[in-house]
Design brief:
The complex is a heterodimer.
Chain A lengths: L1 E5 L13 E5 L3 H11 L4 H4 L10 E5 L2 E2 L15 E6 L8
Parallel strand pairs in A: 1-5
Antiparallel strand pairs in A: 1-2, 3-4, 3-5
Chain B lengths: L1 E2 L9 E7 L9 H14 L8 E5 L3 H13 L2 E7 L4 H9 L3 E5 L4 H15 L13 H17 L5 E5 L4 H13 L4 E6 L4 H4 L11 H5 L2 H4 L2 E4 L2 H13 L6 H14 L5 E7 L16 H9 L5
Parallel strand pairs in B: 2-9, 3-4, 4-5, 6-7, 6-9, 7-8
Antiparallel strand pairs in B: 1-2
Helix pairs in contact in B: 1-2, 1-5, 5-6, 10-11, 10-12
Classes of the chains: A alpha+beta, B alpha/beta.
């Protein structure tokens, strides 16, 4: 199914400048796989050599970090929005 | 701790709020301020009259300023320009010198600037709350045991994710008492800070998160947006609790947790009271205006 994936500013140049793309897949892993196939310039920015997420990359399905769901096996539906975000420092928590 | 189960979305899910705004400097960060400084004193890195520099979005700075004013140290804080006016005022009141970092770079930018300035002034003491074990230790030794003492029936612990100190310290302590307890992290949307990054290597994971195996400790990490945070501080005010915006976010996270379980006891940390957020309009006026203001302000 077609799922929207949103890209952070720093990755958009490698995706023809697009802020979001529609990709096919039933899991986060399938979606990312299609992403790097479609935009090879993103490959070593999002994933490491063994296919896992770059340590400074967070992937969210809607508002949940997939590392704490089923990681790349996290299931997605067409109503979900996947977001790739770089790791940033949280404010000194409140 | 206050039972706020009347706001729980599920009848069999209790929600209990630990009010850290009652600390002397007004926030949970007073705990780590004292812990960081006392640890440095024990290690001999703080001499009488020393100067400290620290990146902070406000509450740690306020706590450090309070401790420094009592102990006779000088404090310089690197503060993003878009923190609330009340935080800036309190820092000045407690005697801290403020160095402003670009708001668009958020806390990442404050950390980088503080690191740069500290390198230029090796005689200044850089305690670095993001990388100092005295931060989570304060929560492991005090906040966590307090929660366990007051609410041993806890099944889920929810707190905001900033330095990760609270989550790591309390979370690791609670899981040692009962491995079945889940730890949920709530974070704000990344917003402008993300756009300011030039490359992924500018990304930042607090060192204490890595040394504390945060990725293995946490059971969930979820983003809560300003609108939900504001919605929840209004709900809490309606039952007599005047709490800060990050408490609203944590409560929204607790509600999200409650919606996924049938029964349980969720303990939530309220980092501070609402006083420092009055200028945000979170309780008065239109929610849309308050959301707009909150989106440009750091409140975690």
């Amino acid at each position: 199914m077609s799922v929207e994936l949103r890209l952070p500013t720093l990755l958009r140049p490698a995706a023809d400048g697009q802020a979001s793309v529609a990709l096919e897949g039933a899991t986060v892993g399938e979606i990312l796989s299609q992403l790097v196939t479609s935009y090879p310039g993103l490959s070593d920015q999002v994933l490491t050599g063994d296919g896992s997420l770059h340590r400074f990359v967070n992937v969210y399905v809607n508002d949940d970090d997939v590392r704490y769901l089923d990681n790349l096996d996290t299931a997605v539906t067409s109503s979900d929005v996947i977001s790739i975000l770089p790791a940033v420092a949280g404010g000194a928590t409140a | 701790m206050v039972d706020v189960s009347q706001l729980s979305p599920k009848p069999d899910v209790r929600i209990v709020l630990k009010l850290e705004g009652v600390n002397p400097g007004g926030s949970v960060k007073d705990r780590i301020a004292l812990s960081l400084i006392e640890d440095a004193e024990r290690r001999g890195v703080l001499q009488p009259g020393a100067t400290l520099i620290e990146p902070t979005s406000g509450n740690t700075g306020i706590g450090l300023a309070l401790v420094c004013s009592v102990k006779g140290y000088h404090l310089k804080v690197v503060l993003p320009e878009n923190v609330s006016i009340e935080r800036r005022q309190l820092l000045a009141i407690f005697g801290a010198e403020i160095i402003t970092s670009p708001g668009s770079q958020g806390s990442n930018g404050a950390v980088r600037m503080a690191e740069r300035i500290a390198a230029e002034h090796p005689d200044w003491v850089f305690l670095f709350q993001y990388g100092n074990e005295a931060n989570p230790r304060a929560h492991r030794e005090h906040t966590g045991p307090e929660i366990w003492r007051d609410c041993p029936e806890v099944t889920h612990f929810v707190a905001g994710l900033g330095t990760s100190g609270t989550l790591l310290g309390v979370g690791s302590f609670l899981k040692e008492q009962n491995p079945a307890i889940e730890v949920w992290a709530v974070e704000p949307p990344a917003g402008e800070m993300v756009d300011g990054l030039r490359n992924l290597e500018d990304g930042f994971i607090p060192p204490i998160f890595e040394t504390g195996h945060g990725a293995e400790l946490l059971n969930r990490k979820t983003v809560i947006r300003p609108r939900d945070s504001i919605d929840w501080v209004r709900k809490l005010a309606a039952i007599g609790l005047f709490v800060g915006l990050s408490t609203g976010a944590a409560m929204a996270g607790a509600a999200r947790c409650a919606n996924e379980i049938d029964a349980g006891v969720i303990v939530v940390v309220s980092p501070d009271g609402g006083w420092k957020y009055l200028s945000s309009g979170a309780w008065t006026g239109s929610i849309d205006d308050a959301v707009g203001g909150a989106e440009g302000t750091i409140y975690f």
